[in-house]
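re: ur question from earlier - yeah i can do the single chain one, its not a big deal. heres the input i used so u can compare w yours
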Amino acid sequence: MIEDQLEVRIAGKTDTGLLREHNEDFIGFDQDAALAVVADGLGGHASGEIASCMAVTSILTELRPDRPGNAGADGLLEEMTQAIRAANQRIFLAAEANKSHNGMSTTLIAARVDGRRMLAGCVGDSRLYLLRDKQLEQLSRDHTLMNDLLSKGAMPENGFSLANIDHILTKALGIHADVEVDCLEHELQAGDLLLLCSDGLWDMVADWQIKDILNDHGQDIERGIAKLIDSANRNGGKDNISAVLMRLD
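and the output i got, formated as tokens:
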């Protein structure tokens, strides 16, 4: 193995949860491309399912290993950005062409490992976490009204609780013909664990619980995924639950 190359193992699962009739989440990963994607569809029933499936399928196709790419971090980040923007346009045009899917959209988090670098793209409030040296860190930023207000130093007035706006999205794929993508790059090391998940996980399982589960089961990522989803359901399972783990060794 090349000295700067880390071995990547990936596992993932999506679950309907306890209260929803349909699963509008969609996940996908490509072991050869060291690529994982999680999408949380919006729009109700079939529309959300279509949007999330289109997003994940589009990105896995655009970033498949046999497609020619650009060398260097800037080129790979640009590839990630363009792949997500292409997925956005496909969803937007599909909704425009079919009135029954009008307004369908999806959140998205995608992560790709290249050597010892992780390159990720985010739209919405699906999250990317890093577990390193037993400590959990959220790498992505939620695109929610609450975060926007807090970043501007604004606070709710007249007794309006932050909880009321916690899940109001300011960005999602498919809403407009183009979308601004948050891209980030992070240096990796052996033993790191990356978690991509929908809000059905992080809203039901506190960060400290996620950290404990990953520390206990991080070596066996399939079991770790099962424990995360089981915990979300035990805590109420109010939404669809999706999680993908990428372990670096």
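The domain at 8-138+169-248 is CATH 3.60.40.10 (Phosphatase 2c; domain 1). not sure if urs matches, ping me
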